[in-house]
Amino acid sequence: MRILTGIKPTGSLTLGNYIGAIKSLATLQAASPEAEVIVFIADLHALTTPQDKNELRQRKKEIALVYLASGLDREKTILFNQSEISAHNQLGYIMECTSYIGEMERMTQYKDKKKKQVEGIRTSLLTYPALMAADILLYDADIIPVGVDQKQHLELTKTLATRFNNAYGPTFVVPEGFIPKIGKKIMGLQNPTKKMSKSEADNPKDYISLFDSPAEGRNKIKSAITDSGQEVKFDSKNKPGISNLLTIYSGLTNSSIKELELKYASSSYAEFKVDLGEVVYNFLSDLQTKCQQLDSSGILEQVLKRSSAYANLLANRKIEKVYKKLGLR
Questions:
Q1: Is 263 a catalytic site residue?
Q2: pTM of this prediction?
């Protein structure tokens, strides 16, 4: 079995990224020791909007450090930058030739971004789901961990894989998605009805960056919006603020929501947030220490070099098979 995921290096990694994607991947790997885990940093996808080259390089490095510091087995995990594997671009074009304009225009993320970005919309913003499909199909991945907002892209990938297989014979594995039960969507601390995201936040207190100082992270929890009443109870519809904080607490401690509700049954919101603030403080301290140790050890460079060579091998085999099916070889 092969598990594959990618992450775009735009904006700082947040607590939402960690709980919803990074930690859940480490948990999935631990539960499936026979599985091969592939993680790529989707730096080509970042170019759908303007990027500062120095910031982009730094974010790519931070992402790689966080993944390795978060419990992934560095000996078994394949971790690389998407742009280093030219087959991604090659298969991306083949997927453009396999898809239809209407399918691209129906992508919710494209429609949302088009509304916000009235001028200067890059062509790649429309076509990047074809490259995303290529990212997945190159490696015959069986399981794709996805957030709720990426389900539509995965469904398109499955459609394109099936369409190609029907036209040219068995070529691609049609993957299945995996959505974690806990933390599948962490919401903003100041607006708990919207997903936590630095790139879309109007208020810096709305998100916790994994590279915020531990004290800053703790203070953001203390200032987080809660709801009317004082009962620490999960109810995402009527109590979105405290429900989001319970999800964060559960995601960082592995305690179930029910256990936390019982623990804080006689506590106020303020008392609950003090404890969660300490959990966040300790988490950030530990993660950042591990990242610093990895950065100075040279281990990251070794993992990236080994992984890139292996990913190139797999991807080139697949693109040659595709080209033969199409008559290009």
A1: no
A2: 0.90
